[in-house]
Amino acid sequence: MNLKDCHNFSDFRKLAKKKLPSPIFNYIDGAADDEITYNRNTSAYNDVDLVPSVLKGVEKVDLSTTIFGKKLDLPFYCAPTALQRLFHYDGERAVGKAAKKFNTMFGVSALSTVSVEEISSLIDTPKMFQFYFHKDRGLNDAVMERVKATKFDVMALTVDTITGGNRERDLRTGFTSPPKLTLSSLFSFASKPMWGINYLTKGKFELPHLQDHVSEGTNIATSIGNYFSSMLDQSMSWKDAEKLCSQWGGHFALKGVMSVEDAKKAIDIGCTGIMVSNHGGRQLDGSRSPFDQLAKIVDAVGDKIDVICEGGIQRGTHILKALSLGAKACSGGRLYLYALAAAGQAGVEKALEQYRAELERDMKLMGCTKISDLNRNNLRFRRV
Amino acid sequence: MNLKDCHNYNDFRKLAKKKLPSPIFHYIDGGSDDEITLNRNTSSFNDCDLIPSILSDVSNVDMSTTVLGEKIDFPLFPSATAMHRLYHHEGERASARAVEKMGTIFGLSTMSTVSIEEIAAINQGPKLFQLYIHKDRGLTDNLIERCKKAGFTSMCLTVDTVVAGNRERDRRTGFTTPPKLTLESLLSFALHPGWTINNLIHEKFKLANIIHMTQKGTSIDKSVIDYINEQFDPAMNWKDAEYCVKKWN
Known about the structure:
- Chain A has 384 residues and is an alpha/beta fold.
- Chain A has helices spanning 9-19, 22-29, 36-43, 84-87, 91-101, 116-122, 137-149, 168-173, 183-190, 193-201, 215-218, 224-231, 238-248, 260-268, 290-301, 316-325, 334-366, and strands spanning 48-50, 65-67, 70-72, 76-78, 106-109, 127-131, 154-158, 251-257, 273-276, 306-310, 329-332, 379-381.
- Chain A has one domain (3-381): TIM Barrel (Alpha-Beta Barrel).
- The radius of gyration of chain A is 20 Å and the shape is globular.
- Chain B has one domain: Aldolase class I (TIM Barrel), CATH 3.20.20.
- Chain B has 249 residues and is mainly alpha-helical.
């Protein structure tokens, strides 16, 4: 199996599984507790049916949309995710360049393995930075200043990782970054020699935004769950978020909003957008899926801020359904991470092109030629 | 697989399955009839979604709650269950100690294999006794009196076992206490020598609370189902319950 055999999300996942040592694959693939929320994030889309309109003249379809004041060619983008060079040696470089090619938003995590400066020099298309609120306020300020200096377009504050999720697959595999070679995982690393050779020869693994501030920066010999639990500030409040928002002074989003009340408060503190998200099911298992919660949030705040539906998206029709409910755009992590692991930049480009082509085809079949054509008349829910 | 590999409920279940002779594992693991209610008991939680609130300063979390007049450190306590020494030779002693450590209520069954008095000496925390009304009212009175004396903090009367459930797995495995070594189950006991040795070298298995009151206490050559049907009073009504409440006071 290789890149040319990857026709959809599932294929990329299979190829990634073949290429990655199992602790790393399971870090991407796993979620919290029983992974019920993780699965619901995708299956929720199947509880609503599409109702197409016919005979509309659909030879030209415009997929562009505007979020955070930026016009994107696609109504979906690469959500920020951590540690991308663990998945492919090019890491964020590969994903950033692929996003640029499609003129869509590229999200960079505070836990990225390529610096914001380098990303900024590589791509001039819209960029979002995902901020984690650390106990160390010096670190927070320094990160904020660096991102400002590199002219990122959007700052997204993560609000759903106040403590680490219970990612049991990581507990079983002993996932740490850099990987800890326990006896049990050694075989898995040994059986994927290309990954190991690339990891060792393609440049040192670093967390450039943290390494000057914390000893964990250069060598997080801890799980991500532990990192969240020990480094992030659990006292984070609306006041802190408001301060960060004004410190940034540009487009500011909260990533991980699920309740209508919180969505309204986000407007009050000056946010211009929110990501309806449960962190890919990786934090609170049992949490409602973004798609299940989307309509309520759009009804409450959709005319005032950009509502992004994040998580569970594996198909063009999923994007179509979320946009029909009123999301301004969709985003996802696994959406492109399996493709990154499978084949680097070429993989991410192929994945983005497939979602683009699917969405274009689905729009035509729906009888729609632009994003603003999508609305709830396109949908019928099976159960209310 | 061992304790350090147990990250969740399911892992413990797997390890227990490895350690126990199958009739005993299935006595714990089984439900009645087609086990639809057993499964639904857990799956119903999945029909409800959580909607988190964000940015609310969660640096300090207090999980304590007050139930049955007792303040406990976290809002979960192990229900009273029968015959712990079948599952591990320390039985209720082990569970009572662990529960005391967690600062929550320990539930002790009428059908326990360690006595009310011994548990009271081991566990200083809040303790609940699960009472079955026996046909022999003297036995019921005696249990209530002993719990009072031993300082148990609450009494609960079991009202859903007026007749025994149809636990088909027990019928198939021939589960009795002490285990009846049928040909069928013999192999399973032989395959779990650790359990069998512990069962043989430690004190004799007995229903410690009722041993002196009924011959059945010393050696129930009956299945639990038969015991329930013979000893528990199916005529139990609201008057009997009221009597127990008054008696316990």
